[in-house]
Design goal:
By secondary structure, this protein is mostly helical. About 55% of the residues lie in helices and about 5% in strands. It has a two-stranded parallel sheet. The model has no long low-confidence stretch (mean pLDDT about 85).
């Protein structure tokens, strides 16, 4: 999950919050960048709602590629 998304996620309400929680429970949301979260001081808020914090995206992309996932670019 990108930076702006991370920040906006902490402020979701109503149906948007419900839909986000469904995505999180289904595993569609993998993680957020720990460095961005700490820099914006939202790391505790994100982990409180169940988002895992990981190193920058490059590490996560490499993880998935190494595990057989395909990269889609459009």
């Amino acid at each position: 999950m990108g930076g702006a998304c991370s920040r906006k996620t902490t402020k979701l309400e109503g149906p948007a919050r419900d839909n986000f929680e469904k995505l999180l429970r289904s595993g569609a949301i993998d993680s957020a960048c720990i460095n961005y979260a700490k820099n914006k001081r939202i790391d505790q808020e994100l982990t409180k709602i169940g988002i895992k914090l990981h190193p920058p995206a490059g590490d996560r992309v490499a993880y998935y590629i190494n595990n057989g996932y395909q990269v889609l670019v459009f």
